[in-house]
Amino acid sequence: MGPEWNWKKFNREGEMTRIHRTLVTVLCILFLAGCGTVGRNFNSENVKLIKKDDTTQSEILELFGTPYEEGTENGYVIWTYKLDHWYLLADSETKGLVIRFDEKNRVNGYRYTSNLIEDQR
């Protein structure tokens, strides 16, 4: 006959393994839930190329791609580009560009904000 099984010990070790797996899974979920991204990255170097009353919607599309959001404000078309990263144990990173177009589809005004280190130089 082969070795005898100690079923009490086997069950205790099996339960501990299950507890460890569950704990690791919960910690991973909490960590991932504490991180996130909203929006799409865009080339912020191109912001300096925007000229009020001159740059067209087509040129903005070439410079930044499809906007993250589109809407209207007081009859003007508004395009929004944004990228937000947030982390569980670190400061969030964010940048955003809002562009307003006139009736001729030219830039009527824009606002760029960022807390990214590369944009602070």
Entry keywords:
121 residues; Beta-lactamase Inhibitory Protein, Chain:B, domain 1; 2 domains; 2 helices; 5 strands; 29% helix; 31% strand
Largest sheet features: 5 strands, antiparallel
How many DSSP helices? 2
Following the backbone from N to C, one meets helices and strands in this order, namely HEHEEEE
Number of strands: 5
Helix content: 25-40%
Number of domains: 2
* Radius of gyration, whole Å: 26 Å
Class by helix and strand content? alpha+beta
Query: What is the percentage of strand-forming residues?
Result: 25-35%
Low-confidence stretches: none
What fold name stands as the CATH topology of the largest domain? Answer: Beta-lactamase Inhibitory Protein, Chain:B, domain 1
Q: Mean pLDDT score, rounded?
A: 84
Bulk shape: elongated
Kindly provide the name of the CATH class of the largest domain.
Answer: Alpha Beta
Compute the separation of the termini in Å: 77 Å
- Judging by the overall fold, what is the CATH architecture of the largest domain? 2-Layer Sandwich
